[in-house]
Here is the input.
Amino acid sequence: MPSSTREKFATQVDSELLAAVRDLARSEGRQLQALMDEALADLIEKRRQAKPRAHVMAVYQASHEKYGELYKKLAK
Here is the structure.
């Protein structure tokens, strides 16, 4: 997802959280910007993975339509 074009933006963050991120960057010998890029990319990937893919859900639904009664019996 990284791009060659960089864009500035401003936001506010909890001061303790920012201090912890700055300490982490310093301890790893990295720039704060690099950690922010990594954190944002991780957040985006995590959220994308949390959504089921359409074809997976279609197969799941078809399975329930076909075997719903069996699933209920097995659950008992």
